[in-house]
């Protein structure tokens, strides 16, 4: 297994060299870095499966790179995340092989390098056994994000997106650095496993806060979510799937890892995690529902899923505080299922979206109406991903969201009133989120995938054998994992064994094909039988309708559509994605900060019919944390920098005086803390 890991890292490094040396001029060379990414990812899938099923694997960096004394330790938890991330990386890499081949697309040197650096950094983070390697790979991942978000330069907003992504990555890295320093300073060791001996107290509480903040910023939890809606769309093509479906999982891995390493967190942090997770999910899906750009809809749904994952993680933290292994197991199982569903579905959506944009040249929802009819491979994959994130059967998203709600309903087993209220509040927000999620993604299915085709769009279809293979892997994964969810639960139980005993997690299987939320006698679900029953019911209904209609059911009768109380409305007055989301803007106007303006024109204006007036209503929404937190903070920092610039007089005696004042302040602080 060490050799396979070395081969995978070697493939990534070789791919970077090919991209930097040969560039993107030749269509025969462009795909090769992604072919190497596919080969390296396949090697890491085998490493992950072996570690999850057979036990830990240790890779010594002295043998691998010839430098350093650290080691990569691949236990069952690391093995599970390697399997999840690099199965998706195989599919995304296959799609990229086809995506970069045509000459009529805009290609940028460095795209492959950023993508390969992302894969290598994610692999090292998951397997790092000491703090130095972990933080080094974490900064490498931040750098990869910056490369991917700064390449295209398609608009003036590109620079802001790249710097926002980089800045939030540095905030995340700084929080982890300070948290790791506290733990390493207390134990005298940089090895992560040795921090288990840190006893409860103020130092542990501060370390917990810093670690949760560090990983939450990478996931996109409130208030660190502002970079996601602009960062993900800024990346080129299917590399967005790598950012959202692969790299984001390192934040989840970090939360899981330190739950198994550190002593229980303070109760107040658990309550904050539950409530902030629920609010993040609600905020993310609400803003996703009112976007007119498909890329921003998908990006905002990543914020929603980050909230769902952290809410279920809050249930696991509750079990850790109460020393209840069953409550820990149900929370971690629900969160891991949601992580899996989100990773596969989000990758499916972003890869399909990249194909839509490559062919149609836009990601506007109204202009993409009916795109699934012209691009069936991408359309079907997009539909599978949308149904998964909507939490509808028979997808893995339905199974994961069912588990999250069932885990939150275990609040009656919790003794403390504060924890109970936290679980109840989170459950209410998650329930509302799931309902809004169905509304948001069914809008995409109804108008974008199945809607009437936009005559302005090009009549071209996606091509490429590797693209179709990757799309099939992602689309089938969204559906097949639900049918095989009992087998997935077994694999997850093995992966979570370093955190919670496998025998406890396996209590989620009340029988070989029936699931329960770990606690017996509460409720059961069989996604496998649901697949059989749904298919049988659909077949029976179709057959009965065919018989009762005496064959007339198959005759097609075309009539004008009935829309908005008027039959046959076409053109600009047709029902649009904006109109579909308008009720949501009205109902949740306070949360969205909706602002409306009305413009009126008369018949002599350009584009209007003589003798008629024209009234248009414009609605905008306000991102509260960007508007009321980060913009004032940015203004304050700029003012402070202007004041500080005045101190740069260029005079040597002034700089010596500054150093003297700094030394005196440092001595005063040291004396105060003695």
Keywords for this entry:
single chain, 674 residues, mainly alpha, 4 domains, two-stranded antiparallel sheet, globular
Question: Could you characterize the architecture of this molecule?
Answer:
By secondary structure, this protein is mainly alpha-helical. It folds into 4 domains: 1-257, no CATH class; 266-525; 584-603 and 613-622, no CATH class; 626-672. It has helices at 2-22, 32-54, 61-64, 76-99, 111-127, 131-149, 157-187, 202-219, 228-234, 239-247, 249-261, 267-288, 294-321, 325-360, 371-374, 376-389, 396-408, 417-449, 465-483, 485-495, 502-505, 527-548, 577-587, 589-592, 624-646, 652-672; strands at 57-60, 71-74, 509-511, 514-515, 562-563, 566-567, 595-601, 614-620. Helix 6 (131-149) packs antiparallel against helix 7 (157-187), helix 10 (239-247) packs antiparallel against helix 14 and helix 11 packs parallel to helix 13 (294-321).
Q: How many domains, in number, for the residues?
A: 4
User: How far apart are the first and last residues' alpha carbons, in Å?
Assistant: 51 Å
How much is the average pLDDT? 84
* Biggest sheet, spatial arrangement of strands: 1-2
Number of strands: 8
What's the SSE blueprint?
Blueprint: H1 2-22, H2 32-54, E1 57-60, H3 61-64, E2 71-74, H4 76-99, H5 111-127, H6 131-149, H7 157-187, H8 202-219, H9 228-234, H10 239-247, H11 249-261, H12 267-288, H13 294-321, H14 325-360, H15 371-374, H16 376-389, H17 396-408, H18 417-449, H19 465-483, H20 485-495, H21 502-505, E3 509-511, E4 514-515, H22 527-548, E5 562-563, E6 566-567, H23 577-587, H24 589-592, E7 595-601, E8 614-620, H25 624-646, H26 652-672
Antiparallel strand pairs: 1-2, 3-4, 5-6, 7-8
Helix pairs in contact: 1-2, 1-5, 2-4, 2-5, 4-5, 4-10, 4-11, 4-14, 4-19, 4-20, 5-6, 5-10, 6-7, 7-8, 7-9, 8-11, 9-13, 10-14, 11-13, 12-13, 12-18, 13-14, 13-17, 13-18, 14-16, 14-17, 14-19, 16-18, 16-19, 17-18, 17-19
């Amino acid at each position: 297994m060490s050799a396979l890991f070395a081969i995978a890292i070697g493939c990534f490094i070789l791919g970077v060299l090919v991209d930097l040396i040969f560039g993107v001029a030749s269509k025969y060379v462009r795909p090769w870095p992604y072919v190497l990414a596919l080969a390296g990812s396949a090697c890491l899938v085998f490493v992950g499966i072996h570690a999850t099923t057979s036990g830990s694997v240790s890779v010594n960096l002295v043998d691998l790179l010839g430098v350093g004394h650290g080691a990569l330790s691949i236990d069952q938890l690391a093995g599970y995340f390697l399997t999840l991330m690099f199965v998706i990386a195989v599919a995304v890499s296959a799609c990229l092989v086809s995506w970069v081949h045509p000459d009529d697309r805009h290609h940028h040197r460095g795209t492959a390098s950023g993508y390969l650096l992302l894969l290598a950094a994610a692999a090292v983070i998951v397997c790092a056994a000491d703090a130095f390697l972990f933080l080094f790979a974490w900064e490498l991942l931040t750098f990869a994000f910056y490369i991917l978000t700064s390449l295209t330069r398609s608009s003036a907003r590109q620079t802001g997106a790249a710097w926002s992504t980089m800045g939030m990555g540095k905030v995340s890295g700084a929080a982890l650095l300070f948290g790791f320093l506290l733990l390493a300073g207390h134990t005298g060791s940089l090895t992560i496993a040795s921090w288990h001996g840190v006893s409860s107290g103020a130092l542990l509480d501060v370390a917990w806060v810093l670690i949760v903040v560090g990983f939450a910023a990478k996931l996109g939890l409130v208030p660190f979510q502002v970079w996601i809606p602009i960062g993900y769309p800024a990346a080129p093509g299917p590399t967005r799937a790598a950012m959202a479906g692969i790299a984001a999982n390192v934040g989840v891995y970090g939360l899981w890892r330190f739950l198994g390493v550190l002593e229980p967190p303070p109760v107040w942090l658990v309550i904050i995690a539950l409530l902030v997770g629920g609010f993040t999910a609600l905020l993310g899906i609400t803003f996703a529902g009112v976007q007119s750009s498909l890329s921003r809809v998908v990006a905002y749904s990543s914020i929603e899923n980050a909230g769902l994952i952290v809410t279920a993680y809050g249930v696991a933290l509750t079990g850790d505080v109460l020393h209840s292994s069953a409550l820990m197991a149900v929370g971690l199982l629900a969160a891991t299922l949601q992580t899996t569903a989100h990773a596969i579905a989000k990758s499916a959506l972003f890869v399909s979206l990249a194909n839509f944009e490559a062919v149609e040249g836009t990601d506007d929802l109204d202009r993409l109406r009916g795109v699934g009819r012209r691009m069936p491979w991408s359309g079907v994959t997009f539909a599978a991903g949308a149904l998964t994130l909507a939490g509808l059967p028979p997808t893995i998203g339905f199974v994961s969201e069912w588990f999250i709600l069932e885990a939150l309903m275990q609040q009656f087993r919790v003794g403390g009133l504060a924890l109970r209220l936290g679980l109840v509040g989170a459950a209410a927000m998650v329930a509302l989120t799931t309902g809004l999620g169905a509304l948001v993604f069914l809008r995409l299915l109804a108008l974008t995938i199945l809607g009437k085709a936009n005559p302005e769009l090009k009549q071209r279809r996606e091509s490429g054998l590797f693209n179709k293979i990757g799309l099939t892997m992602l689309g089938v994964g969204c559906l097949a994992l639900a049918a095989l969810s009992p087998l997935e639960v077994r694999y997850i139980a093995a992966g979570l064994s370093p955190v919670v005993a496998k025998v406890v997690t396996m209590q989620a299987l009340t029988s070989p094909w029936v699931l329960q939320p770990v606690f017996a006698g509460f409720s059961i679900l069989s996604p496998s039988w649901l697949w059989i029953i749904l298919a049988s019911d659909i077949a029976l209904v179709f057959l009965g309708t065919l018989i009762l209609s005496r064959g007339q059911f198959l005759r097609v009768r075309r009539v004008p559509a009935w829309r908005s109380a008027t039959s046959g409305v076409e053109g600009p007055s047709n029902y649009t994605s904006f109109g579909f989301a308008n009720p949501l803007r009205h109902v949740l106007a306070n949360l969205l900060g909706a602002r409306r303006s009305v413009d009126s024109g008369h018949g002599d204006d350009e584009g209007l019919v003589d003798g008629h007036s024209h009234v248009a209503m414009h609605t905008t929404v306000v991102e509260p944390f960007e508007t009321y937190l980060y913009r004032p903070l940015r203004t304050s920092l700029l003012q402070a920098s202007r004041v500080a610039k005045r101190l740069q007089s260029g005079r040597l005696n002034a700089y010596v005086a500054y150093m003297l004042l700094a030394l005196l302040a440092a001595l005063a602080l040291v004396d105060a803390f003695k």
